Amino acid sequence: MRIVAGRHKGRVLLAPEGQATRPTSDRAREALFNILGHGEPPLQDAHVLDAFAGSGALGLEALSRGAARASFLETDGSAFAVIHANVRKMGVDKQVSILRNDATKPPKAPAPCRIVLMDPPYKSGLAQAALPALLAQGWVAPDALVVVEVAAGEPFSSPIGNLSIVDERKYGAARLIFLRFTSEASCV
């Protein structure tokens, strides 16, 4: 697994051992970040949340492509250690916060994120549980873009009325669902 583009292009990332973590494919990650690079809100200078972070590849790709900060939420001990190792390897320690927390029970956010990336285990339903929790704890900025990766045939619906699906893309075994949070009132 490598960083696909940006200032760290080609850097090899470590992945947790075993079957507990399923990294987003390079193809899906490249497509996702090509979309984010031309969308709203802009990825450039954004604070990005990588929930269910695994290896941290999504947040690290965001940093490579110009995001200002990335926060990582991960509960698995070996994945948590791998994120730390990948962050050190890329030399982006000052741009990240790595929290060993469950995305369905997150701590209060230090700052809201304009882009939220979620890659929970397939067919777990954890994205639907995490979205309201992240919103309640201030992780999701008003007008944020939330991207959830699910299995290609997995059912998904937004658990929040003002978090609307605006696009979906399928890449092999993965489906990326793009949601926009639209609310005048902020939870932060």
From TrEMBL:
Single GO term (MF): methyltransferase activity
InterPro entries, A to Z: RNA_MeTrfase_RsmD (IPR004398), SAM-dependent_MTases_sf (IPR029063)
Superkingdom assignment: Bacteria
Keywords for the protein's UniProt record, in alphabetical order: Methyltransferase, Transferase
Methyltransferase keyword on record: yes
Cited Pfam families: Cons_hypoth95 (PF03602)
Keyword field contains Transferase: yes
CDD domains: AdoMet_MTases
GO biological process: rRNA methylation
Signal peptide coordinates: none
PANTHER family according to UniProt: METHYLTRANSFERASE
Name by which UniProt lists this protein: 16S rRNA (Guanine(966)-N(2))-methyltransferase RsmD
